[in-house]
Amino acid sequence: MLALLFGPAGCGGHRTRVISTPETRELASWQKSYEVDGQRYQPLRDHQGFQQQGIASWYGRDFHGRKTSNGEIYNMYAMTAAHKTLPLGVNVRVTDLKNGRSVVVRVNDRGPFVAGRIIDLSYAAARELGIVDSGTAPVRIEALGYRQVNQGQVSYRSPSSYDAGTFAVQIGAFSVAENARRLTGQMRSRFGKAEMQTATVNGRYLYRVRVGNYRSLVQAEQAAQELSATGFPGSFVVAFD
User: Fold this and answer.
1) Is pLDDT at 8 greater than 60 in this prediction?
2) Which domains does the chain have, with CATH numbers?
3) Residue 147: its pLDDT value, please?
4) How high is the pLDDT of residue 241?
5) C-alpha pair distances (Å), 138 with each of 85, 141, 145, 217, 221
6) How many CB atoms lie within 10 A of CB 83?
7) What is the pTM of this model?
8) Distance in angstroms (rounded) separating the CA atoms of residues 165 and 162
C-alpha cells in the first residue's frame, strides 16, 4: 500500500504529497516520488549530463520567508531555484535564450507546477537574467554539480555518493521475537552484519530483520533483488542516518 504523506509546499503554494512505499519509506524525502495536482514526479538520483530547454518563471515576495521543499527558508534575494526532479542542492546554469545572459542557481525547492515551465527562479536570479518585468523567458538549464571553493576559486563537483549513509536490506518482520532472533543469527554468518530491530505497529510489537552494510544504494538494491529471488520475497532497502 502506498503511504501518501503531505510534504512541504513547493513554489507556487501547491501542496505536495510524498509517496512512500515499503521500498522507499526510509530514504531521504527528496529521493521519493511525490504528487502534485494528480501528477506524479520521480526525482533524479544523479544530475550528471542533465540539460533541458523550456520556459523559466520566477517567484518572489509572496513566498519570502516560507519553507522550501528541502526545509530551508526561501530568500527571494538569494540565488536559488525550484525544479521538479533535479536533486535538491545541485547547482544549475540557466541561460536566457533571447538575451544570452546566464546565472548559476542552487535548487532548493520543487516546482514550478505550471504547464510548460521547467524552472522557477528566485527574484534575485530573475533580476540578473533581466526577466522580472516579462515574468517568463525561454531558457536552457545545465546541471553543474555541488559548489565548492578552493583558494577563492569556485568549482562544481559530483558527490562521491548521492545516497549518503548506510544501507541495509530488510528481509522480514515477525510478531515472534525468537523467530526474528534466529534468522538474524543465520544472516549474520552469511552477510557479516545483521540486526533485529523492534518497532511498535498498531500497538503490537514487530521484530524486523535487516542484513548487510552497504555504502551504495545501487549495491543495496542489487542485494535486495537477489534476496527476493532466493527465499525472501518482498525484501527492500532501508537507509540509516
Assistant:
1) no
2) 3-13+15-41 (no CATH), 51-157 (2.40.40.10), 166-240 (3.30.70.1070)
3) 79
4) 44
5) 19, 10, 22, 36, 39
6) 29
7) 0.61
8) 9
